[in-house]
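Input set for joint prediction.
Command: fold jointly, output tokens.
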Amino acid sequence: MINEKKALLLIGSPKISNSTSEALGSYLLESLGKKEYALEKLDVNSTLKKDVQLLIDRVNDVDILIISFPLYVDSPPAPLIRAMELIAEHRKEKPTVRNQSLIAIANCGFPEAAHNDTALRLCKNFADKAGLKWMGGLSMGAGPSINGRDITQLGGMTKNIVKALDLVSEAIVKDESIPYKAIEMMSKNLFPVYVYTFLVNRLWKTQARQYNMHKHLYAKPYIKK
Amino acid sequence: MKVLILDGTLKEDKSREIVSKLTEEILNRKGYKSETIVLHENKIRECIGCFGCWVKTPGVCVIDDFGRTLMENIINRDFVIYITPVVFGGYSSELKKALDRSIPLLLPFFKKINGEVHHKKRYEKYPKVIVLGLMSVEDIEMEEIFNSLIKRNSLNWYNSFSGGTILNNSVEDIKYLLRDLEVTT
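tokens >
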């Protein structure tokens, strides 16, 4: 269909597999597919290495851009920031007349979603600078609990996330900002903080055991003797 | 005392070189020796979020490139200065690429600090970081985001960050942001 709307998901995680950012973004993207949107998905890190022009062209050609990323050192990962720099620079030189919108989804490894707040403000600023209408940002903590899995198959743990993303896809279709209810549901703790902290702390030891490194987790390799 | 300057300006932006030079001059007058690393001139691959630096080679990134050398350099300094254009209120992709590789300097384990969960320290002491954010036009929103990012970094690195924005390479702004570095001679 010539008049169908287009949605593009930019996956901002540099992880090669098991990406929570991809799982969250893909669910939203596929929800839009059911609403007759044409869909496209690009991995930011590999696209930057292969074809920067493709990234810029695809962004220029969509109605709704979704960026989904993990929090790295309090902000989006470096490749996503590079993509934002290039996109904004290009659009400053060649502004588009098309109405285009941006939604951002941030997830972090801390149990509390609030760690993502600054990163989402940064995404809003990017939207303003790149001439995209900011429709809002979603934020979730305990991201590694999803570990790239289909969020519809994780039972009660992701129930609120699925509901939140459903509300967001409805808002996109109506060209409305993300409803507050969706933001609230998405950012609810998946687990009590003490439970998540206990489980994750134990997980590191289990993982290190695979490499026989469980007794060296506290190593200080860069201390100069 | 030697100060490490991480120049995170973008390759395509030559107008910022002056800030690096001015910073070195001010440090020199205060009696500090400085070493400047221009990040885009060094091969630093992006962090791939594998957590190998926590469980496979604890404290060292699994990617063997300049990122490793840089982290050893950072943790053994008393002061590190970041120079970066303010990009949407954050750091440039060049600076961020280096900083994303800094997670082996912390432990994977969590602890609660003032009601919020953070990673535990790996090292006893972390350098004091001063962030110089370069802007060519005044933009209150970007400044606010930038200051918030410095504050968040500081919380995660045990209150060791300060800094702010510099408008049009202003010498006065640079001097002000470096005020905490006491004269040593």
